[in-house]
Amino acid sequence: MLFSKIFIPTLKEAPQEAEVTSHNLMLRAGMIRKVASGIYTWLPLGLKVLKNIENIVRDEMNASGAQEVLMPMVQPKELWLETKRWEKMGPELLRFKDRHERDFCLGPTHEEVITDLVRLNIKSYKELPINLYQIQTKFRDEIRPRYGVMRGREFLMKDSYSFGIDEKSLQDSYELMRKTYKNILEKIGLDYKIVKADSGAIGGDVSEEFHVLAENGEDTIAVSDSSEYAINTEVLLKNNESIDSLEGQPSPDGNGLIQIKKGIEVGHIFQLGKVYSENMKATVLSNQGNAETLFMGCYGIGVSRLVAAAIEQNNDDKGIIWPDAIAPFHINIISIGYEKNKLIKETSDKIYQDLSKMGYEILLDDRDLGYGSKIKDSELLGIPLNIVIGNKFVKEDLVEIKTRQGDSSLTKLDDLNEILDHYKNY
RNA sequence: CGGGGUAUAGCGCAGUCUGGUAGCGCACUCGCUUUGGGAGCGAGUGGUCGUAAGUUCGAAUCUUACUACCCCGACCA
Predict the structure, then answer these.
(1) Contact between the CB of A337 and strand B at under 7 Å
(2) Cβ of A209 near strand B (distance < 7 A)
(3) Eight-class DSSP state of A198
(4) What is the tens place of the pLDDT at every residue in A196-224?
């Protein structure tokens, strides 16, 4: 894409509304704009990243055997009455009436709708286990939305729900999702921890959170310094103990000492058991011909939150540093004098074509600006690799290859393929 | 909901104390010169100063009420 044509309204100065790094950078890089508190429009650059993450999530979910569906955002009161959540949930459940005075809510989650779907359409143990998921906009009227899309009211979430005939089936589904979530976070390229958690209001027995480690994380987690063990400090702390008192204590799993870290919760997996299926009478016939209540699990990933989390974990004072797998563009061709110098234009266009054919997402900065402006923007946007074509090319036949991390080298254009092979591990 | 803060051009700000009809930087438009770390000169565009009411000859400025947004807390997949 040509930089001069794509809609990326970057900001030189930090907007006063953003105090958190990822929020600040998403606004400055022209990824999002606010419509109301906790409600955002995604602009082309932000949307590309969002879609990249969404597609990784989708690929891994499909690979696990889960099937994609799309449920409505608007849900009728009647289903929520069945699980008693119409009364239990507070104002975070946004309720309204249609023109016939019938009550509805905006879906903050979809246990009711999915359980209704399954109980009406799955009748035999032979159709189980099944795992259905969607990637969809959720709405929760948070008490205090904050930090941009990190804690928005409207946000994109992948939520999936597994149904099985017995406890064993649930555990298998849970383990499969646990593995799938690890694959997703590793593929995106983030440093994370699986954290033992309080299952909270959703109910059920077993639950673990996936936290992306970052200094600005909202949650404080205790991790062992010598094992994989991690636990949410909310679970660990008893009567008025301070978080600091945990640091250096023996880890509860018996391995090493506790370290306190900050994390951003990007995923949560639950073994719900029969909580919802009992309330909603979701049963199938077993091989004995008996009606058996379904065992249910639910698994969420905050797709839009992952965008912010990735930035929180990967940035410097110049801007964003995207992991290759989710970068909006892999390579930025910084062409200095594009409109004025025919050789530079033709060479830039040629490289653009060649690299695009190789499967890279390419940005070509054709704007009538100097090197400084262009490299600053590229650094702000976090594009992993830059190819600079300017007067060094005209005079000495050299282009500069410069990574977002700061490595740079000059090379003849002939060597480009070889150089790029080095960065080809996307 | 409790506490704190902000609201003046697209963004960042000054002007408010001490009332006199709005300004700076960046961005944007046009022209010329520039082009390897956010270019220069010249000429321009853009604001009923968050909303409403009040005080006053006169309000961005004083008074009152309201709203929106941000931060801390409670809360939260």
Answers:
(1) yes
(2) yes
(3) -
(4) 887 555 555 689 999 999 988 889 999 99
The residue written with tokens 């569906």 in the block is A69
- Enter the tokens of residue A187: 């593929």
Cβ atoms A77, A102 nearer than 8 A: yes
Decide the pairing of beta strands A103-106 and A74-76: antiparallel
Residue A426 has pLDDT above 50, yes or no: no
**Residues sharing a CB contact under 8 Å with residue A345, sequence separation 6 or more, in sequence order:** A335, A338, A339, A366
Structure tokens at A164: 């099985």
In the 6-25 segment of chain A, residues within 7 Å (Cβ) of strand B are: 10-20, 23
Name the token pair of A348.
């830039």
pLDDT at residue A16 in the model:
87
- Per the CB < 8 A criterion, the answer to whether A48 and A42 are in contact is no
Q: Which of residues 344-403 of A touch strand B (CB under 7 A)?
A: 368-373, 375-377, 379-380, 388-393, 398-400, 402
What distance in Å separates the CA atoms of residue A201 and residue A194, rounded to the nearest whole number? Answer: 20
- Nucleic strand B within 7 A of Cβ A213: no
The answer to whether A109 CB is within 7 Å of strand B is yes
Any atom of strand B under 7 A from CB of A262?
A: no
For residue A45, CA distances in Å to A5, A26, A156, A278, A420 come to 12, 9, 16, 45, 23
**Nucleic chain B contacts, protein chain A, residues 162-201, CB cut-off 7 A:** 197, 200-201
**Tokens found for residue A326:** 């989710």
Complex confidence, ipTM: 0.94
Say if residue A254 is exposed, middle or buried (CB neighbours under 10 Å; 0-12, 13-18, 19+).
exposed
Q: How confident is the model at residue A422 (pLDDT cuts 50, 70, 90)?
A: low
CA distances from A16 to A12, A27, A191, A302 (A): 12, 11, 29, 26
Residue A19 CA to nucleotide B18 C1', Å? 35
Bases in strand B with any atom closer than 7 Å to a protein CB: 1, 6, 11-13, 25-27, 34-39, 68-77
Share of chain A above pLDDT 70, in %: 96
Q: What residue ranges define each of the domains in chain A, with the CATH number in brackets? A: 21-316 (3.30.930.10), 329-421 (3.40.50.800)
